Amino acid sequence: MFMDRSRRAACFTEENLEFQRKILERSGLGKKTYFPEALLRVPAKPCMAEARKEAEMVMFGAIDELLEKSGVKANYSFINSSYVRHYYIGLR
């Protein structure tokens, strides 16, 4: 899928595409490997907004899972904690 998107982007030379193919083959990445949404669009849209969206999805997902497993409820005092504030403010 990644190689198909790279070809359709029409911005890589055959040499670039061959290099990408070799890297993909040797890296162990498979058809089910995750790629950021920004790279799967045609044309690709690598930008800060897309990177932030992906980072938030990963971080908030991990925190949601941790809270669910630990049984901790995210209330105002949790959100106001210095650790959470530190990371949350950094995302703004």
UniProtKB/TrEMBL annotation:
Pfam annotation, one family: FAE1_CUT1_RppA
Taxonomically, the superkingdom here is Eukaryota
Q: What is any one of the record's Gene Ontology cellular component terms? A: membrane
FAE domain boundaries = 2-74
The catalytic activity, as recorded, is: a very-long-chain acyl-CoA + malonyl-CoA + H(+) = a very-long-chain 3-oxoacyl-CoA + CO2 + CoA
Q: Which UniProt keywords apply?
A: Acyltransferase, Transferase
An example GO BP is: fatty acid biosynthetic process
Q: Which GO terms describe its molecular function?
A: fatty acid elongase activity
Name listed for the protein in its UniProt record: FAE domain-containing protein
